[in-house]
């Protein structure tokens, strides 16, 4: 499968009150054309910042992002404008991201105008077509955001993102703020649109159960780093990183028989501050398997088995002298 987006050693630091917050520190991965890559992590782990830095809504502190081979962070204004069409974002809070004083037609039309995609009657037709695409009625176009439900507002946000015919969309917790009953509808819509338009998604969510059914591959983030990345099926069946194992053990299993016999992995303590992350492995203060090496040496991001990436000394032959196969039975 063709690679659409390459993220190489991406860093995003913020200077805050005399300190430095390492929101994203050194993440490397690819996104394949047409896939959904789920990104999961607790709030504050850097997943939204990573999404925004990929789109260059934030300037990167280091590393690079290549979209179809083009360096996003070194693009000149003309190239960046083109990239802004190709790469879009859907926000967590559809209400906050929609201007309350603009009608739906203005909101979607603004995106069309910015890239000079349609004028006059064509523009109006295109707005109606986009509303239809996301399951809203053409006569909704003259209404204001507050006249819609949360799910409908998210549909407006999706229509706005689609207006410029993007190839890649960062979906930043697009369903987290919605009622559970509405979440599936929006997820289904995103799936249909992906098939119809050949879209590629980076889908950010705060827990693994939320991305399970929509992601082809899943990345797990912890304190500014990606701990593990694999095909969804592989990750859910055979998590390698102790953090992923803990997250998965917290998801209830519907079968009460199985659920009763299951061992929960309870993590001690809280997530440390990204201003002062632990030395060595960021996860070591909470890891049930932490060893001496974990405080001294930062684990390398490596492909433990084909397509399955992990940053943990348990899978590092040099540190542990152990094979991955052996470790799978942890
Ligand atoms: Fe745990 Fe060490 Fe692996 Fe970090 S490197 S996840 S502390 S075993
Ligand atoms: Mg967020």
Would you give an account of this structure?
With 330 residues, the chain is α/β, with parallel strands linked by helices. It has 2 domains: 1-101 and 158-222, Rossmann fold; 237-330, no CATH class. Helix content is 34%, strand content 23%. The chain has 13 helices and 12 strands. The chain has helices spanning 47-54, 77-86, 104-114, 120-133, 150-162, 180-197, 208-211, 232-237, 242-249, 256-261, 292-296, 317-320, 324-327, and strands at residues 3-16, 19-32, 36-40, 62-67, 70-71, 87-90, 168-172, 200-205, 217-222, 225-231, 302-305, 308-310. The strands form 2 sheets. An 8-stranded mixed beta sheet has the order 6-7-8-3-9-10-12-11, with helices on both faces. It has a 4-stranded antiparallel beta sheet with strand order 2-1-4-5. The protein is globular, with a radius of gyration of 21 Å. The two termini are 32 Å apart. It binds iron/sulfur cluster and magnesium ion. Iron/sulfur cluster binds next to loops. Residues 48, 173 line the site of magnesium ion.
Task: List descriptors.
single chain, 330 residues, alpha/beta, Rossmann fold, 2 domains, 8-stranded mixed β-sheet, 4-stranded antiparallel β-sheet, 34% helix, 23% strand, disordered C terminus, binds iron/sulfur cluster, binds magnesium ion
List the helices and strands and how they pair.
Blueprint (H helix, E strand, L loop, with lengths): L2 E14 L2 E14 L3 E5 L6 H8 L7 E6 L2 E2 L5 H10 E4 L13 H11 L5 H14 L16 H13 L5 E5 L7 H18 L2 E6 L2 H4 L5 E6 L2 E7 H6 L4 H8 L6 H6 L30 H5 L5 E4 L2 E3 L6 H4 L3 H4 L3
Parallel strand pairs: 3-8, 3-9, 6-7, 7-8
Antiparallel strand pairs: 1-2, 1-4, 4-5, 9-10, 10-12, 11-12
Bound molecules: iron/sulfur cluster (SF4) and magnesium ion.
